Amino acid sequence: MARPHLMIFLVSVLLGHSCIVALVASPSNFTDLSALLAFEARITVDPDNILADNWTTKSSFCNWIGVFCSRHRQRVTSMNLSHMGIHGTIEPRLSNLSFLVSLDLRNNSFHGYLPNSLGQLRRLRQLYMGENELEGMIPPSLSQCLELQVIALELNKFSRYVPRELSILPKLRILLLSNNSLIGPIPPSLGNLSMLENLVLSNNNLGGSIPEELGSLHNLQQLTLVNNQLEGSLPSTIFNISKLQLIHLSMNSLSGSLPTDIGYRLPNLEGLYLGGNQLSGHIPSSLCRCGKLSHLVLSVNNFIGSVPREIGSLSNLEEVYITRNSLSGTIPPSLGNISKLKVMDFSENDLVGNIPEEVGRLLNLQTLFLGKNHLSGTIPKAILNISALQRIALSFNNLSGCVPMSTGSGLPNLEELYLGENQLRGSIPHSVSNVSMLSIVDLHSNYFDGPVPTSLGNLPHLQYLQLEDNQLTNQPDTHELSFITSLTNCRLLKLLVIGNNPLKGNLPDSIGNLSTSLEVFSGAGNQITGSIPKGIGNLSNLFSLYLGTNDIAGAIPSSIRGLEKLQRLYVGDNKIHGSIPDDLCSLTQLGELSLSQNKLSGPIPNCIGNLSQLKILHLGSNLFTSLIPLTLWSLTDLSFLNLSHNSLHGHLPGKVENLDVFEGMDLSWNQLSGDIPSMVGDLQRLRYLNLSRNSLQGPLPQSFGNLISMEFLDLSFNNLSGVPLGPPTMPILIMARPHLMSFRIRAGGALVHYVACMLSGHIPSSLCRCGKLSHLVLSANNFIGSVPREIGSLSNLEEVYITRNSLSGTIPPSLGNISKLKVMDFSENDLVGTFLKRLLKLLVIGNNPLKGNLPDSIGNLSTSLEVFAGAGNQITGSIPKGIGNLSNLFSLYLGTNDIAGAIPSSIRGLEKLQRLYVGDNKIHGSIPDDLCSLTQLGELSLSQNKLSGSIPNCIGNLSQLKILHLGSNLFTSLIPLTLWSLTDLSFLNLSHNSLRGHLPGKVENLDVFEGMDLSWNQLSGDIPSMVGDLQRLRYLNLSRNSLQGPLPQSFGNLISMEFLDLSFNNLSELSLRQWVDASLSHEVMEVLDPNLVRGDEDSSTVRKQCFSSIMELAMDCSMEWPDKRTDMKDVVVRLKRIKLEFVANVGVIFPVSHPLPAVYTSELVLSTHQAQVLVQFSSSDSIYRRISAPVFLFLPSQLALCGVADRPGFGSSIVNSTKSTRRRELSFRSSLASSLPSPVIFSSSSSSRSYQFSLKRALAKAKFRAHRCLPISRNPSAAPVVLTVSPGATPIVDPSGVHPPLRGS
């Protein structure tokens, strides 16, 4: 039995001996062992004792954990000690592992430098050192490891430059250097790494531009340079790398635009991340040809234009982020085709239109962010049925309508719902409570009404609920806000904001049962009544409590001491009474406390000094009567104190220490007495001090000279003394306060917030040393002398009032240096001089006889100048070139002056100009192309000048132009076609020029066009039918041209027309006669008003036949040539025959009585609301009999009106039905009075003096001197036109209905 044991022992000895012999016999193995042991010696932390227990000489190093050797030579070929939590430094003698192929020490805590000696590892292929704390420079010696394929040094602290020497590694495939502190440019030589597949340099401080040479990396699949300081444009060469799958260049300062053909060059692109740069231009539509694209991130750039409508072809797209750009247009409906889409973030753009219904087809959509756009319409119901949705953000749009009551039923996974800042109405759907995963509900700033649903309490995961700024109410018939009780079930609730709703109820005591996680409760402006409930003290984690501007009464409950973490308490503007409880003083975390505008009384408690972190304290407008507690002055963090409007008495403390951050104090309207203590002058950060309306006395402390930050000081209505007034001493006072911003003076010498005190003397020039002075008010005193010329040194001055004094001299030119100046009131003085040589930020000086030139120094003003109005000032000279420096000017008004010269090319510098009015001057020359670069221009008036040449084609670049006045100049060109592309144009005046050519045959998208005056030109050709498509057109003047051809039938569509002048052209007749002739006899109802033939079927047929016969007779009477017309004797016969046939078939009896008196036409109303013509007659004879008979109204040479006079009162009923009181009326008194004689009337009698003849269409054209053609719209909704006609000659009236022949008709 002993022999087997003996054998085992002998074998063990022999094996051990052979190993020792082998080790001794192989120096190379000994080298590897020494290197490993040296490495182990540098390990300082080995949390699992792996190396301590395993790396021992008791076993071969090839068996050590993390060490791998070659099979035959037993040499170390690989080390992998990743993810072991080891601390230490890298041993340089690792370079002795000459057979090492892979070194992986990732995710440890190695620190120090990476040894240069690693460059001796000639066989090294993989170097993984990521996620450590290595620092210093990346060793350039690594370039000697020519077999290297992977260098992974990410997530360390390497600094300095990316070694350009690495570019000689011929086999390098992966270079990971992200998340270090590398600086400098990216070496262009990296473009030599022809085998490189992944280049990751993200999260460093690399600068410069992306080298064009990287485009030579034809095998590159991943380029990640995110979060550096790269700038410049994107090199086009990188878009030639067809193998690229990922481009991640976000969070840099790259500029320029994307190549228009990007989609054709990158067929394998899967991810494009370009967010957080300064890229501009349009999103190329070719990008939608990258069929493999799954992630598209273009957020936070300056892209413009619309979202490519072809985006729906990206069938593999999963996430798209284009938030925070300047994209416009609508959301492409084709997005609904991307079935894999999970995230869609189009927020913070200028998108308009509705949310496409097609978005509801995205069944995999999890995130939908469309907030902060200009979207309108309703929320599509289909979106609210996408069961995968987790987050919906539609806030800050113009969405309207109601949220569907079924909302929530189809959103089982919804976690966040943002609908705030819209125009949504209706009640909050109760079904929202079915969305059990909801954690955030934001509905603020809408028009939601009705009760707050108590079912919201069924949301167990609810954390944030924002309902402020709506019209929500409490549950009916309840005094307490019951929904708050229901929310006690939401145990995770952190934020509850319900402010500014008319809730009108009490806070329930159950508020104390709300989640202990609640951090913010805001219920300001809710008309809350009752008292602060005691239960509120249970909210132990509450940070902020806002209950201001309510009707809360009662006392502050002692339970408030339970709000141990409260930092902000605002309950001002209520009716709280009683005293401040000592319990409030136990809230030691309180930083802001406002109890102002209540009815609190008694003393301010001494324990207020316990609130050591208090920064803001508002106790103003109460009934406090005590002394100010001394402990209050021990609050070293206090920055603002308001105790105003109380009845506090006593003295201010003589000494206060450690108020280093004190910035503002308002103790006004109290009963404080004694001197102002000198300690106030030690508050060097004090910016606001109001001690007015007290009983303070004594001199102003000299220490006030130390108040270097003072901006506002009011000591008025006290009994201060001891500061003599006058020029010798006032400068001393002023110079002691170089940062004073609000300076007002009252008698007695104190610096106060007061005017009208009869102060005299000079304004001291030393006042101009108050460098922070922003408001200077010296109005209504007796100051004499001049305005200090040094006033221009007050660089922070915003408002200056020195009106109503006796100042003389000139206005100092140095005022032009004050770039922040907004208000300058120097009125009611004795100032002299001409036009200011400097201007202000806002200067309105119109309609004054200034009589001077604009100085070129106008361009030296601050670029903050926004408005300059100098119209009607008799300004001469030319527009100065320097005006182009005013890059922020919005409005420039220089009309009605005597300005001559040309428009300077420097005007292109007014990049933000929106209104330019320089009409009624003497400006000559042409319109410079530079004017066309003002792309923000919305209103342009150059009329009544001497401009000549052509209207430039580039006028079409002014895409935001709404009003254009170029009338009364000397333009001789064609009207540029580009002008008709201005889709926002509403009024165009090119009248009184010598423009020629034709009007365009087709114009699209002029949807807002309301007025056009092209009169007094040389335009020719037909009036295009497109004019009739301008349905908003109210004013059209084409008179005094050479237009010809017929009036377009489309003019019947001009439903808004109020003024039409086509006179003095060569227009051919498109008469009513032609239209009636075409309508007879098969379309006679197109001529007649249906009211004329109303009745039973038989009667209507007879009436229709009667009027058809009358119209046929009228056609014969209105032939163009007199010899072709029917003789009036024959007309009489035919009329009698028509009447007899009508009477025989209908049975109408015509009573004949008194003859009709003479009548005069006083007003002709052409109404198109009900396609009728209203003719009003007046007469001195009131004897009328009722006669129902056919009626004719003739104008010279032309049939104008036909109809039937109906029963009395019929006219007034028509007027009421058409709401005539709202009709626009336009009078042509002067043009008609002299040219249109009174018509001849065939009429019936009535007891009324006003008749209205109801017609469908009766008057197509009235010939008179000034207005040749007057069309009648066929649109029943058109606006009426009123023609007022002076009485003419006495018409001929025959009660029998027989009219004698008209001469010349």
UniProtKB/TrEMBL annotation:
It is a single-pass membrane protein. Residues 31-70 form the Leucine-rich repeat-containing N-terminal plant-type domain. One of its GO terms (cellular component) is membrane. GO terms for biological process: post-embryonic development. It is found in: Membrane. Residues 1-22 form the signal peptide. Transmembrane segments: none annotated. SUPFAM superfamilies: L domain-like (SSF52058), RNI-like (SSF52047). Keywords: Glycoprotein, Leucine-rich repeat, Membrane, Repeat, Signal, Transmembrane, Transmembrane helix. This is Leucine-rich repeat-containing N-terminal plant-type domain-containing protein. Pfam families: LRR_1, LRR_8, LRRNT_2.
